[in-house]
Design a protein that fits this description.
Elements (H helix, E strand, L loop, with lengths): L1 H13 L3 H6 L14 E2 L6 E2 L4 E17 L12 E17 L4 E15 L11 E19 L7 E9 L15 E12 L2 E12 L4 E14 L4 E10 L2 E13 L2 E10 L7 E10 L1
Antiparallel strand pairs: 1-2, 3-4, 3-14, 4-5, 5-6, 6-7, 7-8, 8-9, 9-10, 10-11, 11-12, 12-13, 13-14
Amino acid sequence: MKKTTLLLIGILVGGMNPSILLAQGDLPYYLKDRGTGIATSMFGTYINKGEFIIYPYYEYYYDQDAEYKPKEFGYGLDQDFRGRHRAHEGLIFLGYGITERLAVEFESAVITAIQYKAKNDPSNMPDKIEESGLGDVESQLRWRWREETINRPEIFGYFETVFPLQKKKKLIGTQDWELKLGSGMTKGFRWGTMILRTSVMYNGAESKVELGEYAVEYLKRVSKLFRFCVGVEGTGDEAELITDLQFHISPHACIKVNNAFGVTSKATDYAPEVGVLFHF
């Protein structure tokens, strides 16, 4: 009775999403950090049945030694070089919780990217190549196989499709189909929540299946207004250390400040991200 009364007061008076109210003080300890929602592809972000998420954000890419082949840009030489890379990207992420076990996502981007020629590159590639336009466009299905209990972790899965909408571009967007099937687990403890996930990916350009994205994450709610996530995420030999800070400025809005630092030589050196996440 007490739990029901608390929820009604929060919804009718404060306009607060029930899962947020619960996450602040009326959940078992293993759900305190994340609430009751399904894991999304965004770091430290979960979605409940009937909930919409709208997240517009900006990301910058800074890399002093991005790997490229002149042949990939149409300049003959099939050899790896390292040159500076810069990009500005504006993105929109949309999510909807269909049921307590199923959610859908959509993400699209516009981007301006520049690849600079390496000093030791003898090809006739120009000093820099710049492209602007539509970036990656992708969708995901997210589902919960099994809910977390005090003794066992939550098991979730996802299927991602990246659409080949930039067949004529070399530097931005996706030129062929990319399909990803992944799974993960989440377990909350009194000292924080751990998330593990991995996937396999079909690369249409190379017509092969390979290991996809993998990650280890730690999520912690510090207070009603702030929580953070720290993790290592990678694909192949590219791995990044990621921090995600979340400032809950209202019952329906959260400022997210994300930073990715390359921990392997082929990963982007630094990629900061900032945006405001709305949920209704």
